[in-house]
């Protein structure tokens, strides 16, 4: 499952990068550094900062690898010690997803260090999100956020509602492809639709937040936990847990 997941993820990344390149060339703004970079949007590369401190990058990457190993050890100690099953696994896996994302970016930054730049972070303190829109727009998976803004939102500035729903629908399709379809190939389990349901719920949440919760910071924080965190087992399902080697049995 992990190998299929990585292959599907790699193919999806290739398609995303191709789309970004086509958009750049259509706008007559080709960024040749982006062509060779490991990111999927030129705007992500523009957020990178110059650095020649390879030793620091190597130290950070090493620490992140150790942290990932410790998180995995703690996860399996809890799962096996308390015989945990069901949605509890989904919630328990959230910290590991975050640490794995940052570990991957740290390793890519180290590999990309000969270019003289440090790639921007993937996450920005998602637990402190001040709302649903803040979570998805400023804190979670910022590399994909950049791509969606570059490929969709910047094209449809005059139709933000359509851009919002299209973005989350496309994200749902991506997750169905990378996770639920791979799970079906490996196990025959049919979970199609769960990813799409989750991301359409996020679109509805962002729209409702903009319409009904303006000027209500506490309500927006509560809404973020209710809409983003509570239904997360829809997206952190058996397929993703298997792909990340977090599925018992």
Features:
two-stranded antiparallel ribbon; globular; 2 strands; 249 residues; mainly alpha; 2% strand
Description:
The protein starts with a helix and ends in a 6-residue tail after the last helix. Strands 1-2 form a two-stranded antiparallel ribbon. Helix 1 runs antiparallel to helix 8 and helix 9 packs antiparallel against helix 10. The protein is mainly α and 249 residues long. The mean pLDDT is 92. The radius of gyration is 19 Å and the shape is globular. The protein has one domain (2-243). It has eleven helices and two strands. The relative contact order is 0.14. Helix content is 70%, strand content 2%.
Concise synopsis of the structure shown:
The protein is built from 11 helices and 2 strands; from the N terminus they run H-H-H-E-H-H-E-H-H-H-H-H-H. With 249 residues, it is an all-alpha fold. It has one domain (2-243).
Strand-helix topology:
Layout: H1 2-26, H2 32-36, H3 42-46, E1 49-50, H4 54-82, H5 87-111, E2 117-118, H6 132-139, H7 142-153, H8 160-187, H9 194-212, H10 217-229, H11 238-243
Antiparallel strand pairs: 1-2
Helix pairs in contact: 1-8, 4-5, 8-9, 9-10
């Amino acid at each position: 499952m992990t190998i299929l997941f990585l292959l599907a993820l790699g193919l999806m990344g290739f398609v995303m990068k191709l789309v970004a390149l086509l958009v750049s060339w259509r706008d007559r703004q080709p960024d040749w550094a982006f062509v060779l970079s490991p990111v999927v949007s030129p705007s992500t590369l523009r957020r990178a900062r110059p650095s020649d401190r390879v030793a620091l990058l190597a130290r950070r990457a090493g620490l992140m690898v150790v942290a990932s190993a410790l998180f995995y050890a703690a996860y399996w100690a809890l799962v096996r010690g308390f015989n945990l099953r069901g949605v509890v696994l989904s919630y328990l896996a959230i910290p590991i997803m975050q640490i794995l994302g940052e570990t991957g970016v740290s390793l890519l930054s180290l590999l990309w260090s000969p270019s003289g730049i440090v790639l921007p972070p993937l996450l920005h303190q998602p637990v402190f999100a001040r709302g649903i829109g803040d979570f998805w727009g400023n804190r979670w998976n910022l590399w994909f956020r950049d791509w969606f803004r570059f490929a969709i939102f910047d094209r449809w500035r005059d139709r933000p509602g359509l851009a919002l729903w299209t973005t989350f629908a496309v994200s749902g399709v991506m997750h169905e492809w990378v996770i639920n379809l791979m799970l079906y190939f490996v196990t025959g389990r049919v979970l199609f639709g769960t990813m799409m349901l989750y991301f359409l719920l996020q679109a509805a949440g962002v729209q409702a937040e903009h319409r009904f919760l303006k000027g209500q910071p506490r309500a927006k924080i509560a809404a973020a936990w209710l809409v983003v965190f509570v239904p997360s087992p829809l997206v952190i399902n058996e397929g993703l847990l298997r792909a990340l080697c977090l599925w018992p049995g």
